[in-house]
Amino acid sequence: PLLFYNLPLIRLQRKTINQARPYQSVIIQGTVSGSPRTLLGGHVLFQLQDETGVIDCAVYEPTKQFRHICSHLIIGDKITVGGGIRAYPRTLNVEFLYTDSLISIFSNPVCPLCKKSLSSQGRGKGYKCKKCKARYKENELPKIQKIRPIGEGKTYLPPLCAHRHLTKPIIRFGREKKRFNLEELKFLKRK
Questions:
Q1: 8 A C-beta contact, residue 43 and residue 86
Q2: Those residues with Cβ within 8 angstroms of residue 110's Cβ, 6 or more apart along the chain or in another chain
Q3: What percent of the chain is modeled with pLDDT above 90?
Q4: pTM (2 decimals)?
Q5: What average pLDDT does the structure give for the chain?
Q6: What is the pLDDT of residues 122-161, one digit of tens each?
Q7: Which of 127, 147, 179, 188 has a Cα-to-Cα distance from 102 of 20 to 30 A?
Q8: In Å, how far from its chain's centre is CA 111?
Q9: 29 or 182, which is more confident?
């Protein structure tokens, strides 16, 4: 039960990357296959891959904190994005992002003697403390899982000032005007 699946996003069509055509508004589920990079001017680009292909995804500077969220994605994160397909170069202009599952990031363990971070001696060779010179085997100490600034299972949207003119703001969902049926209108006119 994803948040945006419950919303009436009629104009967005669920597609694979190969099915998406220029000027369509689509929802694509895939895996981040290229690290986000910030271009001159503040735009963020990353690559998304599914079983049918790869597409560049663009998050533009006017989206402010939304592009910072997208810059924290790493290769292997499974996400669902929605937005419009640009013709040339073929790019998905991201309007929302949902994090299906995120890759865990681990850092080197901490030295139990001096409480400083250990440095790796190479794959399978263990760790060494630069301060107290103590050495530890690879599996002797637990690695520390880093906390990511983005959460799993969350929907991220740009601020209202950056929405396309056709995009309904999230705060307006569920506040639609109630429609009167014709019989109710006739009854009201009689009084």
A1: no
A2: 116, 117, 118, 141, 144
A3: 16
A4: 0.71
A5: 80
A6: 887 888 888 888 888 888 887 888 888 888 888 888 877 7
A7: 127
A8: 34
A9: 29
Specify the higher pLDDT residue, 23 or 63: 23
* Separation CA 85–CA 92 (nearest Å): 5
Per-residue pLDDT band for 164 (boundaries 50, 70, 90) equals low
Query: Which residues face 46 on adjacent strands?
Result: 57
Has residue 36 got a pLDDT over 80?
yes
Cis check: omega of the bond before 149, within 30 degrees of 0: no
> CB–CB of 126/140 below 8 Å?
yes
Chain-centroid distance of CA 41 in Å reads 21
Going 33 to 35 to 36 to 40, the CA torsion angle's sign is negative
What one-character-per-residue DSSP string does the chain give?
Answer: --TGGGS--TT-EE--TTT--TT-EEEEEEEEEEEEEEPTTS-EEEEEEETTEEEEEEE-GGGTHHHHHHTT--TT-EEEEEEEEETTTTEEEEEEEEEEE----EEPPBPTTT-PBPEE-STTS-EE-TTT--EE-TTTSPPEEPPPSS-TT-EE---GGGS-TTSPPGGGTT-PPPPPPHHHHHHHHH-
Q: Which residues pair with 45 in a beta bridge?
A: 37, 58
